[in-house]
Amino acid sequence: TRRKTIGRGSSATVYAAMCHDSGETIAVKSAQFHRSEFLQKEAKILSSLNSPYVIGYRGFEVTKEPLNNGEATYNLLMEYAPYGTLIDAATKNGGFFDETRVVSYTRQILLGLEYIHNSEGIAHCDIKGSNVLVGENGEAKIADFGCAKWDEPEVTEPV
């Protein structure tokens, strides 16, 4: 059950929703199916990741939305980050963080990047405050893998 809009980008909208089976609050990133190739790629990437510093993947679904003239909608289901983005958290804190929190967030973001680069061969390509979320326990979680790329090994031609 969708509750409220929590984010809006150029090609997708993110809603908070309640999962019927578990009662868990999740985030649902939605796009019209015919424009969802980037979201499907993001789902594939997120489904391969498992780190406390990367937003959690909960699945995907394709639905027909009555508010969208019955068109198919692709929905990426993710962990809900109740404190929003790093930008939101800084704004709520008077526009800045103390040194301890800056060090903590920086460490968590770097650990997340190390994991996705070294373990999974993925380059995020769009790290910024609005693409880092603050989780339930105040931890930084890398999100929005729409621009991410897999590091494919170079194929060299014999000389």
From TrEMBL:
<feature type="domain" description="Protein kinase">
    <location>
        <begin position="1"/>
        <end position="159"/>
    </location>
</feature>
<dbReference type="GO" id="GO:0004674">
    <property type="term" value="F:protein serine/threonine kinase activity"/>
</dbReference>
<protein>
    <submittedName>
        <fullName>Mitogen-activated protein kinase kinase kinase ANP1</fullName>
    </submittedName>
</protein>
<keyword id="KW-0547">Nucleotide-binding</keyword>
<comment type="similarity">
    <text>Belongs to the protein kinase superfamily.</text>
</comment>
<dbReference type="GO" id="GO:0007165">
    <property type="term" value="P:signal transduction"/>
</dbReference>
<dbReference type="InterPro" id="IPR017441">
    <property type="entry name" value="Protein_kinase_ATP_BS"/>
</dbReference>
<keyword id="KW-0808">Transferase</keyword>
<keyword id="KW-0067">ATP-binding</keyword>
<keyword id="KW-0723">Serine/threonine-protein kinase</keyword>
<dbReference type="Pfam" id="PF00069">
    <property type="entry name" value="Pkinase"/>
</dbReference>
<dbReference type="InterPro" id="IPR000719">
    <property type="entry name" value="Prot_kinase_dom"/>
</dbReference>
<dbReference type="GO" id="GO:0005524">
    <property type="term" value="F:ATP binding"/>
</dbReference>
<dbReference type="InterPro" id="IPR008271">
    <property type="entry name" value="Ser/Thr_kinase_AS"/>
</dbReference>
<dbReference type="InterPro" id="IPR052751">
    <property type="entry name" value="Plant_MAPKKK"/>
</dbReference>
<feature type="binding site">
    <location>
        <position position="29"/>
    </location>
    <ligand>
        <name>ATP</name>
    </ligand>
</feature>
<keyword id="KW-0418">Kinase</keyword>
<dbReference type="InterPro" id="IPR011009">
    <property type="entry name" value="Kinase-like_dom_sf"/>
</dbReference>
